[in-house]
């Protein structure tokens, strides 16, 4: 299918969404002359930010419902990655021989540049951003895109064959490559942990989608794997590409070495000179060392100098909603880790602080069919007070903690932050690290983080008024 010749063709975009993918696809096809119809089950009010991006384009919207005719009388259906493959409307399109694709699938068909793809359950955003930062110190034309609240298609106009493209890719986005015989030239997998088991019937299904990042690689391509993750390490058996391993725990592995830690320094391959010291890294948390090693491995494959890598690491303090220090009020630090949507992410956050650190944890939300037992055990060991937001995961977690530590249930974020602040003294940390999805109380995890930030800002203003009284 030649997407450049889509003038006057009918395109149905299924799922406008809230993170930019649907809006980007709709904008792309509208600008190349297609007749675009966007359909989403959510309301105009829920989708107002995405609709604002498309207000000046001749696009038709069907909101609050899907209609069968929009999947029959169409030349192409573009599905949002969050739409389940078993949707009855997608089946209607298939029965009527209407092609179905995704923005990622289209991007891989049209992108002229080599692609660096990053996936994993945790760390893919940070790793992708770090790689882009490091590459940008050597190359003038680097584009970061993918699962970062914007559509990859909006970046196409800026890309030529000399561009270096870094894509963060979720499992749902990778599923969009199923019908395309393509994988990135360089693929990185940070780790595999249980996630999205409310969407996938089994963990094996989830892993199969992750594998699509390397399944169509060729012998001239590269695959960077986390040696310390047994599931990821074993992917090397299934690829034709050249494999490099990064490792935080296994030192001088005999396999093909990417970046690794020896003592308190980072090395690459068989080189005897260290790239940098761990203390040069600005990112908070031991778990981020894995992301650093993955990024360093990619940067060195592209001949980025040690000096440039070290500079990028010392300047990069992290991304929005990932152990992000929002404020310090009366000696208490307020930290936004809203993108911690699985229990393992909360464990990593807790382990980022000294054992004796007093932590008031704000957690809870919607269940993704995940196991909370290990998290519950660690909350009891590491958390001074727990504030729980409502949701199905909260209902699952709370009985595991009964009578083991002080718990307060809050109906919304402002209440949670206010209650947490009452429990603190100077030197304490209030940590938003939910371990669950945000749906029900919030539209997505970033809105949850925004509510936390606003609640902290209100608290700061109140404290300022009191101090000036």
Automatic annotation (TrEMBL):
Annotated GO CC locations: cytoplasm
Record-linked SUPFAM superfamilies: MurCD N-terminal domain (SSF51984), MurD-like peptide ligases, catalytic domain (SSF53623), MurD-like peptide ligases, peptide-binding domain (SSF53244)
GO biological process: cell division; cell wall organization; peptidoglycan biosynthetic process; regulation of cell shape
Gene Ontology MF annotations: ATP binding; UDP-N-acetylmuramoylalanine-D-glutamate ligase activity
Functional pathway: Cell wall biogenesis; peptidoglycan biosynthesis
Origin superkingdom: Bacteria
Record key words, sorted: ATP-binding, Cell cycle, Cell division, Cell shape, Cell wall biogenesis/degradation, Cytoplasm, Ligase, Nucleotide-binding, Peptidoglycan synthesis
Mur ligase C-terminal domain location: 321-434
Domain called Mur ligase central: residue spans: 118-299
Keyword Isomerase: no
NCBIfam families xrefs: murD
Function, as annotated: Cell wall formation. Catalyzes the addition of glutamate to the nucleotide precursor UDP-N-acetylmuramoyl-L-alanine (UMA).
The protein, known as: UDP-N-acetylmuramoylalanine--D-glutamate ligase
The species this protein was found in: Candidatus Portnoybacteria bacterium RIFCSPHIGHO2_01_FULL_40_12b
């Amino acid at each position: 299918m030649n997407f450049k010749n889509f003038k006057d063709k009918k395109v149905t975009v299924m799922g406008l969404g809230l993170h930019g993918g649907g809006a980007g696809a709709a904008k792309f096809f509208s600008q190349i002359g297609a007749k675009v119809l966007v359909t989403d089950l959510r309301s105009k009010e829920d989708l107002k930010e995405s609709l604002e991006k498309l207000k000046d384009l001749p696009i038709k919207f069907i909101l609050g419902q899907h209609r069968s005719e929009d999947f029959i009388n169409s030349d192409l259906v573009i599905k949002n990655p969050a739409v389940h493959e078993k949707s009855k409307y997608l089946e209607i399109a298939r029965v009527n021989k209407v092609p179905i694709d995704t923005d990622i699938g289209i991007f891989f068909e049209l992108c002229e540049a080599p692609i660096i793809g990053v996936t994993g359950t945790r760390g893919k955003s940070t790793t992708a951003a770090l790689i882009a930062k490091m590459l940008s110190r050597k190359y003038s034309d680097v584009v970061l895109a993918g699962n970062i609240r914007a559509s990859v298609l909006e970046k196409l106009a800026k890309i030529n064959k000399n561009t270096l493209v870094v894509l963060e890719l979720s499992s749902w986005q990778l599923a969009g490559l199923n019908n395309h015989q393509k994988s990135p030239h360089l693929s990185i997998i940070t780790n595999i942990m249980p996630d999205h088991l409310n969407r996938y019937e089994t963990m094996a299904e989830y892993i199969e989608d992750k594998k699509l990042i390397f399944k169509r690689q060729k012998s001239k391509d590269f695959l960077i794997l986390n040696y310390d993750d047994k599931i990821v390490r074993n992917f090397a058996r299934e690829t034709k590409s050249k494999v490099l391993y990064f490792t935080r725990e296994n030192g001088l592995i005999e396999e093909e070495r990417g970046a690794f830690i020896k003592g308190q320094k980072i090395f690459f391959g068989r080189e005897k000179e260290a790239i940098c010291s761990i203390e040069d890294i600005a990112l908070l948390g031991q778990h981020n060392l894995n992301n650093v090693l993955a990024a360093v491995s990619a940067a060195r494959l592209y001949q980025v100098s040690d000096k440039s890598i070290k500079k990028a690491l010392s300047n990069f303090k992290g991304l929005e909603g990932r152990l992000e220090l929002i404020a310090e009020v009366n000696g208490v630090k307020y930290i936004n880790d809203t993108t911690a949507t699985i229990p393992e992410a909360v464990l990593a956050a807790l382990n980022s602080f000294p054992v004796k650190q007093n932590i008031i944890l704000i957690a809870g939300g919607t269940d993704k069919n995940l196991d909370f037992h290990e998290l519950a055990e660690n909350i009891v060991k590491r958390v001074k007070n727990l504030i729980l937001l409502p949701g199905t995961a909260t209902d699952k977690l709370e009985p595991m903690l009964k009578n083991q530590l002080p718990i307060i249930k809050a109906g919304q974020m402002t209440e949670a932050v206010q209650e947490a602040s009452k429990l603190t003294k100077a030197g304490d940390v209030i940590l938003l690290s939910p371990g669950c999805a945000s749906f029900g109380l919030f539209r997505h995890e970033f809105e949850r983080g925004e509510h936390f930030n606003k609640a902290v800002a209100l608290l700061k203003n109140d404290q300022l008024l009191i101090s000036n009284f």
